[in-house]
From TrEMBL:
Residues 24-57 are annotated as: Disordered. Keywords: Coiled coil. It comes from Dyadobacter soli. This is Uncharacterized protein. Residues 24-37 have a biased composition (Low complexity).
Amino acid sequence: MADSEPGIGKKILSFFIKDAEETATGTATSKPAATPAPESPRPAPTPAPATVTNAAGTGQIDKKFTEHFVTLLEKANLPGPDYFEYKQALQSMDGLGLGEEKQFQAAWASFKAMGGAKDTTVLKTSADQYLGILNKDRDAFLKDVEKAIKERVGALQDEHKKLEDTNAAYAQQIIDLQKKIDDNKNRLGQISGEVSEQTAKINSNKDSFEVTYVSFVNQIQSDLAKINQYLQ
């Protein structure tokens, strides 16, 4: 398909993306629509909303990335019939009531009828080329992500580690201080015991002193009394 074909971006979008709005309305109950005339053209896909669901309906994809990949594939579109033309033929099989295998076979017959190759090599080769383009773009994107993480998140991670290290140091200081407090408490308990012990020893020594003192005083006073009595 040539790059100049009108509406290729919309066609690529319709190949891979199902509008969330279209999905919702498709499941709602509505009145039967009149059968269109055979010559009526198929309506163009509506623009993708801000957030759309993938065709499998298993998740959500962002509009900015949808537009990015559509533009990427549109610019990489190879000349002549290839995977994209086959994909378009396959999409036209929707609503015909055919099974998946029959759809793929009917699309292949339609592809060959519009001048495509006679074997599936061109489909596989061109699809692999588009996959290679997408994978290359993904690798570049992941490198940008890694760079952004280093530049934008690196400083935050450094601050996070610094705060963790600081908190660890504070925690160790608390442990050390608590040990000192416990040691002081133990010493306070020992001091209380030593105070009682030393007080008892001192008081006992004081008592002994007083007894001895009284003994000496009494002896001297007794001698003085006898001197006065016997030596007059």
